[in-house]
């Protein structure tokens, strides 16, 4: 089976969903068209959600032709949709280079980041694969392929909204990939998603999750939009966290929490520490006390997620009694903590799982794990 990435089509054009008014204004000017055409193109792209350039009927035929030589209206398609009993839906999206990514629509859940009871949350991917090899996650099992463009990030929201016929009003960038390793495309996408001329989602309804890239956290702290931050922590001491999160060997907890203090000094929003509970690895009561201390130091809340089996790893899920005992240590210490017995694991909702099975079946990659069904919990979703 081939192990190399599929080559992109010779003429893969970028999507209009990654463009800004200024970029379109410059394009229109270069084509000798009147300035109002730029506003029309932006309206067709974002407000009217045109699925083709040909459908932009108020534009002249020559302008549509010139635009079609440079852009497409859509650059990906929905390859598969799976659903679960609790209505969590996972979307497998095919990119224009033949690779796949995933995005997950999570039903109303007030435990998610202070969400309202009727809020629909979309878990958005930022990369094809991942280079950070977090031990609970399927995204990195086949390695890293490439960053998503800003347009590919935005298009996930557009495609899902069109499919379900409902507006997505809460975004979490904790799907496939490390968002802060794709910083420039992430930031451009967030600006488009937030803008009134774009998708129009409030900045406070967007959460960026990172495995702990400390320098980029400090950089993101200066980003003007009031987005939220979540940290995939999963260990309260360096020795424990390094077993689960290889990134900790480059940016240890001291460096990470220094960056989080910088974030806190510049932001009003509370942070969230994500913590997957793994039996005899990080579920010890001593870790709970350390976690409480760290959470209090930055006024963060903690989201506890019981682990589910990953094929090829010997880790196990703690008993519910141990899960409760761990949570109770946090609560007794005055830390806001939720224990989330996951939604969606029955549809393979863990980041990267569905994509891994699809690309393996097509021979795009060789399976990095035995050919059994991989069963991973909802991860950081």
Describe the largest sheet.
10 strands, mixed
Full CATH superfamily name of the largest domain: Aldolase class I
Return the CATH topology of the largest domain.
TIM Barrel
CATH hierarchy, class of the largest domain: Alpha Beta
How is the largest sheet built, in terms of strand order? 1-2-3-4-7-8-9-10-11-12
Q: What is the residue-averaged pLDDT?
A: 85
pLDDT under 50 segments (min length 5)? 1-10, 110-116, 343-349, 370-381
Distance between the termini: 31 Å
Number of strands: 12
* Structure class: alpha/beta
Strand content: 15-25%
Write down the secondary-structure element order.
HHHEEEEEEHEHEHEHHEHEHEH
Roughly how many Å is the radius of gyration? 21 Å
Helical coverage, percent range: 25-40%
What CATH architecture of the largest domain would you give?
Answer: Alpha-Beta Barrel
Number of domains: 2
Q: Specify the number of helices.
A: 11
The shape, in one word, is elongated
């Amino acid at each position: 089976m081939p192990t190399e990435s599929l080559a992109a089509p010779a003429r893969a054009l970028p999507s209009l969903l990654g463009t800004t008014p200024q970029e379109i204004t410059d394009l229109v000017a270069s084509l000798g068209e009147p300035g109002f055409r730029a506003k029309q193109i932006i309206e067709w792209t974002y407000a009217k959600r045109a699925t083709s350039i040909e459908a932009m009927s108020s534009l002249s035929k020559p302008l549509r032709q010139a635009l079609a030589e440079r852009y497409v209206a859509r650059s990906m398609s929905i390859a598969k949709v799976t659903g679960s009993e609790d209505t969590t839906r996972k979307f497998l999206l095919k990119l224009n280079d033949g690779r796949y990514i995933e995005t997950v629509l999570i039903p109303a859940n007030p435990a998610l980041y202070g969400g309202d009871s009727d809020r629909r949350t979309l878990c958005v991917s930022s990369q094809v694969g991942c280079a950070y090899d977090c031990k609970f996650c399927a995204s990195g099992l086949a390695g890293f392929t490439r960053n998503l463009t800003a347009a590919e990030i935005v298009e996930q929201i557009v495609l899902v909204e069109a499919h379900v016929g409902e507006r997505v009003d809460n975004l979490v960038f904790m799907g496939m990939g490390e968002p802060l390793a794709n910083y420039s495309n992430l930031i451009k996408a967030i600006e488009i998603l937030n803008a009134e001329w774009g998708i129009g989602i409030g900045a406070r309804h967007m959460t960026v999750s990172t495995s702990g890239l400390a320098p980029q956290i400090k950089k993101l702290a200066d980003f003007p939009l009031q987005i939220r931050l979540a940290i995939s922590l999963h260990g309260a001491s360096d020795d424990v966290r390094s077993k689960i999160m290889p990134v900790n060997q480059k940016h240890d907890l001291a460096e990470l929490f220094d960056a989080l203090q910088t974030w806190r000094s510049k932001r009003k929003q509370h942070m969230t520490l994500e913590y997957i509970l793994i039996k005899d690895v990080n579920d010890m009561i001593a870790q709970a006390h350390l976690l409480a201390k760290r959470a209090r130091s930055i006024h963060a809340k903690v989201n506890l997620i019981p682990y589910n089996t990953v094929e090829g790893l010997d880790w196990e899920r703690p008993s519910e009694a141990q899960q409760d005992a761990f949570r109770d240590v946090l609560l007794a210490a005055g830390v806001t903590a939720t224990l989330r017995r996951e939604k969606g694991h029955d549809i393979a909702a863990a980041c990267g799982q569905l994509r891994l099975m699809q690309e393996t079946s097509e021979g795009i990659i060789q399976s990095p794990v035995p050919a059994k069904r991989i069963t991973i919990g909802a991860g950081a979703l």
